Every structure is written in structure tokens, then in C-alpha cells.
Amino acid sequence: MSGLTVPIVLQLVGVAIIIAEIIIPSGGIISILAALVFGYSLYIAFTQFSPGTGMLFVLADMIIIPVLIYVGLRMIAKSPVTLNATLSKAKGVISQEPGLEGYLGKNGLSKTDLRPAGFAMIDGKRVDVVTRGEYISKQTPIVVHGVIGNQIIVRERVEK
């Protein structure tokens, strides 16, 4: 066994600790441990061998560690541990209730105080509505001003 066994093993342990940091988020505590292991490995390489050997370890660390982190992240992204579910129309997922656009321009009556959110009766249906920030009291005539996403935006109906 050569004298470089200890620094090489410490380097491999440091890589394993970095991979553990990717899997187990610790707020950087595990990364500090990895930095200490790498530092001790470099200390041994520089002091017990030669500055040239130490520089080879530094160069190897600068190349190998980023590559291993990249590969580790790619592998974890494809592993069964991660959430790989995708939401799509084919699976029946919709971002907006169908038919909300049909309320645009319709009149109704606020059933609760709208400050700015509440309920209203529009076309005989109780629906969630919001205002643009203004307060509308209960039992006030309203008109649907817009539909954005799942929000029905109303304003007070002004009689002409």
C-alpha cells in the first residue's frame, strides 16, 4: 500500500459526504464536514509528500468534485426518491374550472360582504368572487368585470 492511500481515501470520503449533502439537506453542516475532510487530505498531501503532489490533489479536486456533484444531481433527479409526477390535461388536470369565462359581463348579487373576496349569486349559482380591492356590502348588485385563472372579478353594478 502506498503512502498516498490515506489522502486518496479521505478524498473519496469527502466525495461521499458531498453526495450525502445532496440527499440529506442539512443547511450546509454536512458540507462543512466535507470541506474539513478535503482540507485534511490536502494538508497530508502537501506536508507528508510534496507541494507538487498537493497541487495534483487540488487540480483533481477542481475537476472531479464538480463533475461528481453534477452527475449526482442528475442521478437523483431521475431516481424514484424524487417526485416525477407531471400535471397535464391528458391526466385530467386543469388550471381553471371550465366555464368560468361564461360569467364575463353577467349580473349578480353579492351574498356576503366582499372585502375583497366573498360569495355572490350569479345565474342562480353561488360562486366565489373577488373585487379589485374595493369593499362591496352584502346584497349589492354586481357585474362580472373579468375572469383571471380561477378568480371571478366583480365590481358594483352602476344603474344607468
TrEMBL record:
Domain of life the protein comes from: Bacteria
Membrane topology: Multi-pass membrane protein
InterPro entries per UniProt: Membrane_assoc_protease, NA-bd_OB-fold, NfeD-like_C
Transmembrane intervals: 6-24, 52-73
Alphabetized UniProt keyword annotations: Hydrolase, Membrane, Protease, Transmembrane, Transmembrane helix
Protein name: Membrane-bound serine protease (ClpP class)
Subcellular location as annotated: Membrane
Entry annotated with the keyword Chloroplast: no
Gene Ontology MF terms in the entry: peptidase activity
Species of origin: Desulforapulum autotrophicum (strain ATCC 43914 / DSM 3382 / VKM B-1955 / HRM2)
Keyword Transmembrane: yes
Short name of any one Pfam family annotated for the protein: NfeD
Residue ranges of domain NfeD-like C-terminal in the record: 101-155
Record-level GO cellular component terms: membrane
GO biological process, any: proteolysis
